[in-house]
Amino acid sequence: MVRFIRKLLPRRWRPDHVEIPVVRLHGAIMTGGGPFRQNLSLATTAAVLEKAFGDKDSPAVAISINSPGGSPVQSRLIFRRIRDLAAEKNKKVYIFVEDVAASGGYMIAIAGDEIIADPSSIVGSIGVVSASFGFTDLIKKIGVERRVYTAGKNKATLDPFRPENKEDVEHLKALQLEIHETFINLVKERRGEKLTDNPDLFTGQFWTGTRGLELGLVDALGDMRSYLRSQYGPKTRLRLIAQPRGLFGRKLPSAETKIGELGANFASGMISAAEERALWSRFGL
Description:
Blueprint: H1 2-8, E1 19-26, H2 42-53, E2 60-67, H3 72-89, E3 92-102, H4 104-109, E4 114-117, E5 122-124, H5 136-141, H6 166-191, E6 206-208, H7 209-215, E7 220-221, H8 224-232, E8 237-240, H9 259-281
Parallel strand pairs: 1-2, 1-8, 2-3, 3-4, 3-5, 4-7
Antiparallel strand pairs: 5-6
Helix pairs in contact: 2-3
């Protein structure tokens, strides 16, 4: 309401400061989540991005990112939404890296017109990884017989309870190469001549913000407040854009929620937490 009233005032009576909307994109990138846990995906970020870019008075949007990566599809969807909104609303986008912007997190980061990192931030990891387990010896020890029935010879591809199949692995690696090529092309498109000619750039290696600046992965080192004030003046103010909530805050499970549904949500949350923990641990975090 206050911002609306300010717009009605004569220009000479309006505040002389610049206000920059800030969006925080923190966490692993994956679909799903629930009432107790929310991950980064297009579904969870679309509304807050729309709100930030909808500010007509601001010349730019600042995005704070802290993500070890995750789904390549969701990463690219978030990247695309940021770029589409930037073009539609004619806004400059500043990306500020906190602890890490790696893999899918870095894919989102390159949506920025400028990427600013802390000297100790982790950036890069331009690659694709898949991980699983093999339980064939375990089920033999405990006397479990695995029975699988399929229509289609490839429906049980990469089943962790069956011995690893060479053809399955080759197919998975072919898919990874295609996804990796898409990632590489996107980085080259966005970073262009800023990138140095380094043989490790697209190997999945990751670096500190300081080294990332030398490689052309980021544009500058610094923090959000200081950097934006250097761009728009000492009176620049930052306004955090929060995720939309209901009238009484975040919606929690109702009393009518079935115990089975709560149990399923809890189990799903535990799996997601384990996957997220594995992503963060790759970078010592």
